[in-house]
Amino acid sequence: MTFLWHDWAGYIGVVLVLLAFLGLQTRKLRGNGLVYQLMNVLGAVGVAVSLIFGAPPMNWPALLMQLAWIGIGVYGILHSAKMRRVYGS
């Protein structure tokens, strides 16, 4: 089995998302924290890249889920940044 660059992007993405979830469950990361959000966004980007550049046919439901994950994560980052500016924490 040959691993191409997009396969590695997908595996790294999966590891990032799983580590983010583990960090949340073990209370090492906060759900509204920047590190947690970035791990989720970058993980979803990696998985999406592997889906887009991987062998056909495209798995559209999985890609849609990754795009939603990215959108929600970016929203979380922006919302948290706004709250930090407003409340100064």
Task: Name its key features.
89 residues, mainly alpha, 3 helices, 0% strand, elongated
State mean pLDDT (0 to 100 scale).
95
- Care to count the β-strands? 0
- Main beta-sheet strand count, sense and barrel state: none
Derived structural class: mainly alpha
Helix content: over 70%
Q: What percent strand?
A: under 5%
Determine Rg (CA atoms, Å).
15 Å
SSE topology string: HHH
Number of helices: 3
Distance between the termini: 49 Å
The structural domain count equals 1
Shape: elongated
Low-confidence stretches: none
Describe what you observe in this structure.
The chain has one domain (5-87). The protein is mostly helical. It has helices at residues 5-25, 34-53, 60-87. The mean pLDDT is 95.
Give a brief rundown of this model.
The chain is mainly alpha-helical and 89 residues long. The protein is built from three helices and no strands. It has one domain.
Which SSEs are present, and which pair or pack?
Layout: H1 5-25, H2 34-53, H3 60-87
